[in-house]
Amino acid sequence: MQAFLISLTTLACLATALAAQAASTVDLSVSGLITPSACEPSLSNGGVYDLGKISASDLHVDQPTRLAVHNLPLAITCEASTLLAIEPRDNRLGSSYDESPTRFGLGHVSGDNKLGYLSLRLNSIMADGVGMYPLGSTTSSSWAPTSLLSNAFLTSFTSVPTGLTPTPIQQLNADLQITPTIAPASTLPLTEQMPIDGSVTLTMTYL
Description:
The chain is mainly beta. It contains 1 helix and 14 strands; from the N terminus they run αββββββββββββββ. The chain has one domain (about 35-45, about 65-185, about 200-205): Immunoglobulin-like (Sandwich). Helices cover about 0% and strands about 40% of the residues. The strands form 4 sheets. Strands 1, 2, 3, 5, 8, 9 and 13 form a 7-stranded antiparallel sheet that branches. Strand 8 and strand 9 (about 130) form a beta hairpin.
């Protein structure tokens, strides 16, 4: 349970008339959201994909270099069957070499040089013993098939191959496919070490 502390500080003058005090008011608004059940996401290896050391000589000079694809098992566990969606957030927003909304940045190097980007795709999705199909939506009211995660839309799941309506789930397992790509070598300061610094937060949103 999250607690909210409201602190009120008042400086009163004993000589102030009662009528004047009555005319001073303030409104308090309390808002929030009660969800039917809580869902907890988890990624294998603590959500860490270490690419290790990459030689600058292995990078393409005038075009991006796609690195090895890697899968991290993703699990979502809910207390009860729940309508939900995944809302990704790029913690390195603005650093993607490709400005497509399905790309996530890998950080800046040597000032404003964009190191590259990564894409995230969901494969082999199973929920409650049934194969699932990913859906994307910018409004949560209209959905379309997609397997890519994006900063620009929510991702939910349906049990119907051609379905366009999210299905409630309780236990979901999938492979999160990570595809990192490095910007052309000609755009990077190759005389120095460059840390690959991608970071994405996946938040559960209840529909």
